[in-house]
Amino acid sequence: MDEVTGAQLIAESLKAQKVDYMFGIVGVPIIEVAMAAQAAGIRYVGMRNEQAACYAASAVGYITGRPGACLVVSGPGLIHALGGMANANMNCWPVVVIGGSSDRNQETAGAFQEFPQVEACRLYSKFSARPSSLEAIPSVIEKAVRTSIYGRPGACYVDIAGDMVNAKVERSKVREVSCCPPPPVSLADQGSVTEAISVLKAAKTPLVIIGKGAAYGRAETVLRELIEMSGLPFLPTPMGKGVLPDDHANCVAAARSRALLQADVILLFGARLNWMLHFGLSPRFNPNVKIIQVDLCAEEMGNNVRPAVALLGDISAVATQLLLCVRRDGWKYPSNAEWWSTLKSKIAANAKISKALALQSTVPLNYYTVFHHISQLLPHDCIIVSEGANTMDIGRTMLNNYLPRHRLDAGTFGTMGVGLGFAIAAAAVEASQNTGRRVVCVEGDSAFGFSGMEVETMCRYSLPVVVIVVNNNGIYSGVDSETWKAMKQMGELTSVAPPVSLLPDARYDEVMKAFGGRGLLVRTVEELRSALQLSLSDWERPSLINVLIDPSSDRKQQEFPWLTRSNL
Fold first, then answer.
1. φ, ψ (nearest 5 deg) of residue 268
2. What residue ranges define each of the domains in the chain, with the CATH number in brackets?
3. Half-sphere exposure at residue 260, Cβ-oriented, CA atoms within 13 angstroms
4. 3 state SS of 436
5. Which residues of the chain fall below pLDDT 70?
6. What is the pLDDT of residue 1?
7. Tell me, what DSSP letter sits at residue 302?
8. Cβ neighbours of residue 551 under 8 Å, at least 6 residues apart?
9. Which is the most buried residue in 80, 189, 275, 485, by most CB within 10 A?
C-alpha cells in the first residue's frame, strides 16, 4: 500500500506549484515538513527569526514571480511571521506561509502554543485556511499559490494541525492538482487608451512615473521602447529603479521634486499615490495635474486623486497598447521643449551640490562621500538591498540601478529589518541560477540591529553577500564616543542619552567575524575602497564592512521647506 504523510503532501504540493524556495525556523510540529521539502527538491534556508524568514520568502516572490514559502511553528512563531506577511501585502509581493498549529483534538483545551492562527492571519493576507483533511492539502496549497499571484499579489496562509504532519493516507485517495497557470493578462479599454494618448499629446510638462508594479510585471522591455519612442521624461519610484537604467537620458530622478511639482500630466505605471508619492496632492504636486493611472487593481483607481484616464489591466500589456498608438501616430514629445531645459538645469544643479559633498574626504566621512565611492566600485548588474533612514534615502539617489528588480528596500510599508532577509533571498536565487551577480546590502546601523543575527545564516550557507553598515551611531543621528563618555558622567544614560542614539563606534564587523565571515572596519576613503574591492573579490564567504561616519552627517539642503525626513 503506497502511503504518504501530511508533510510529504505539503512539500510535493508546493513543488508541483513551482515553489522552489522555503525559508523558516523548524520546531514542533513542522520539522518533518522542512525535511520533506528538501526531499521534494525545494531549497530550504533555515533562518534565525521568523520575521526575516518571511521577508526572505516574499523577496523571492518579487524577484522570481513565483511565491517563496515561509515555514513557521505554531503560536509565537506564526505571530513573528505576521510582520513579514503584512509587509508582503503592502508591497504586493506573493508569499505563502505554512504554519504548524496544535493538534485538532486539543483545540480549546489550552494546547501547547495554541492560537487562533487562521483567524489572525486573515488581517494580513489574501487567503487563510486550514485543510480539512490530508486529501485536501494539494487543493488548498494550489489555491494559496494561485491567490498569491493572481490579481494584486500578496500573502497567503495555510495552517497545518500538528497531528496532520505525520498522519498518513493512501496516495491513491489524494487527487492530484496540476500547477496553476500564470495570471491571466487583461487589456485596458481601447477607447480609454486613445483618450490617454490625447491627454499626453496636449501636455506641456508631461512626466512618466515607473513604480515597482512595473518591475514586478516584467514591463521593462516595452516601457523602454515607449519612453524612447515618445521622448517623455520618466521618474522611477525607489523599487522602480532599474526598470529603465538610472543613467538613461530620459531619467529625471535627480530633479524629482521639480518634476513632480511642475508636471501637468503624469502617466503612472504600477505606482500608488500614497505617502511615497505625497498622495499626488499639492504642495508637492501641481493641484491641476492630470493623472493617467495604469494599474491591475480596480480598487486602486482614484485613491487620493481621481484620474483623468484610468487604464485597468496588466502593466506590460497596457504599455504595449500605448506604444502601438504612439508608433501609429508617429508622435514624439519635442526634445527641445522648455520643460526638458527646466529639468536638465535642475539635474545639473543638484548634481553639483551632491558632488561637492561627495568629494569631501575629511574624517569622519559623510554619507555622500561614502556612497560616491561605493557607487564607483559596484558592478552594474549587482542587486542592491538598502534600508535605514538617511542611508536608504541618500543611497537611493547615489547608487544607480541598471536592471529591473535589482533594488530591494523598506518599501511601501517603510519596514526596517528587511535588509538581511532580502539579501539572503536574493543570494539564494543568484546561487541557484549561477548568474555571477553580486548581492550588496547597504544598511544603516539601526536597521542592521533588527535582524543582524542573520549574518550567521549567510555564513552557514556560504552566501557571499557584501553587507555595508553605514554607522553614524544612531537612528537619524548619534553622538561621538567623547560625547557619550561625557553623558555617562552626567547621570543615568536612560535619563540623559538621546533616544535616537546607539552605542558609538559599535563593532558590527566583529559580529560577522564571529561566524567565520569577513569583517572590516573602515574610517577613511582609502580603507573603504580597499575593503569593498576585497569583499567583492571573495565568492566564498560573506563580508561586513563597518563604515564609521560623522554622527551628525545629514542630507543635503532640500529645495522645498515642507520636505522633511523621507523623500521616498
1. -105, 110
2. 3-173 (3.40.50.970), 190-344 (3.40.50.1220), 360-548 (3.40.50.970)
3. 26
4. coil
5. 1, 556-568
6. 67
7. T
8. 364, 472, 473, 474, 477, 478, 479, 480, 504
9. 80
